[in-house]
Amino acid sequence: MLAAKWSRLSYKALSSRGLRTVGLFSSSGSSNWTKVVSDAEKIVGYPTSFMSLRCLLSDEFSNVAMHVRKLVGTQHPLLNTARGFVYDSKNNLQMRALIILLISKAAGPSHAASDLLAQDMVSGIYPSQRNLAEITELIHTAFLVHRGIVNLKEWTDSDGPLKDMQFGNKMAVLSGDFLLAYACTGLAQLDNTEVFELISSAIGDVVQGLYCENYSNAEESSLAEGPNIATWEEQAFLSHGSLLAKSCQAAMELAKHDKEAQRLAYQYGKHLSLGHKLNSDLQPFVKSSVGEPGPFSLSAAPVVFHRHFVGKERWHQQLQQLLAAVKSEKGVSSAVDLCCYHGNKALEAIQAFPSSEARSALENIASAITKF
Known about the structure:
Layout: E1 8-9, E2 14-15, H1 33-44, H2 53-56, H3 59-68, H4 77-87, H5 95-107, H6 115-118, H7 127-146, H8 162-189, H9 193-218, H10 229-254, H11 259-286, E3 296-297, H12 301-318, H13 322-328, H14 331-350, H15 357-368
Antiparallel strand pairs: 1-2, 1-3
Helix pairs in contact: 1-5, 1-15, 3-8, 5-7, 5-10, 5-15, 7-8, 7-10, 9-10, 10-11, 11-14, 12-13, 12-14, 14-15
């Protein structure tokens, strides 16, 4: 599956224990992020954190959940992922669904849509678009669970019982596959060939992006070399941007909007995702120093930019003191600039849509990812 080496670096030393860090579409560093999302959820009709409730309450998933409970007390990341979905009310885990609903409402009905179709809209959103938002979240969640698989080759006795990790990996595969299958069934029920092809290609992009991540992280020279800037952007789009971008485009197709509206929706989703990924990568470097800084990925954007600027020789010398080195040079500022670029491009794409509360919410979200 998607298990692979996931090296992490603290400000003191390198470490790789076999645990993979699972990244959510969580709140950015902006203090008003939660308010921005809360206001946006009111516009679309209800909190999107409950969108996948039908799936989560199904008999099949209840059986999976019963087995996941056996992981209580272990260090398997699947347990933390499950806790996040149950207890985390402030990190807005279902952001993709919210954005799809907002852009659907902002675009409104198209001239090509029949009057009968328009009568089916609820709060300015077609039922098929709400279904698409739920499907997108399920696909994202499936890959999120798969990303939590532990590399057992790196697990040692001091890290805990190996049998717990083996069982956790089996449950991660089963849970992720179930969610993905459930999503694909819903995708087929939309009965739209173009939408099916779009989302299917997005699933392929995520798989390709995660494979590239895993392959580069598994290389023995990954700590010394790592991805370059172009590679980082490509992998970030495949792993984090493609699903939202193509889902936004698919939402326009479901409402029978023209190709230009679809292109703009795609651009908004793409740039918003990349901006948010940059914002997340920047958090360990821009937060106020309180105690020991948390771990960060060697493939984080500021690190990639820093490695590009200092060159291979200095990079090798700085590996053991990387946090301070990245913060003191151009890596952070370049990543901030790129984050602002993508945020501005998302704002630019949404300007063609009619002025409305939904468009304003999309603008606020795009602006929020550029705040630290």
